[in-house]
Amino acid sequence: MFEERSAGEVDTLLKSNPEFRQLYQQHQDLDRRVMNAELGINPVDDLELTRLKREKLAAKDRLVRMADTMIH
Fold first, then answer.
1. Rounded CA separation 43/6 (Å)
2. Would you tell me how many other CB atoms lie within 10 Å of the CB of residue 2?
3. Based on CB atoms within 10 Å of each CB, which residue in 22, 43, 44, 67 is the most buried?
């Protein structure tokens, strides 16, 4: 998710910012749910899958904005 950032930067954010950590965990959970739905492990209808993907993208966008603000 943070290809342009070092693992150390992301790790520092995870350790130092509870809001970032919670949002990161939420994104990870959504990622697993989307993957499980796409693989048929946990089937969901198209509307729910679209909702999950949008929520995941919104979380990622917020994480990137937070990281940009905190690191710069």
1. 35
2. 14
3. 67
Q: Can you tell me the distance from the alpha carbon of 51 to that of 10, in angstroms, rounded to the nearest whole number? A: 27
DSSP codes joined into one string, the chain = --TTS-HHHHHHHHHH-HHHHHHHHHHHHHHHHHHHHHHTSS---HHHHHHHHHHHHHHHHHHHHHHHHHH-
| pLDDT per position as a tens digit, 9-63 | 889 999 999 999 999 999 999 999 999 999 999 999 999 999 999 999 999 999 9
| pTM for this prediction | 0.88
Residue type, 3: E
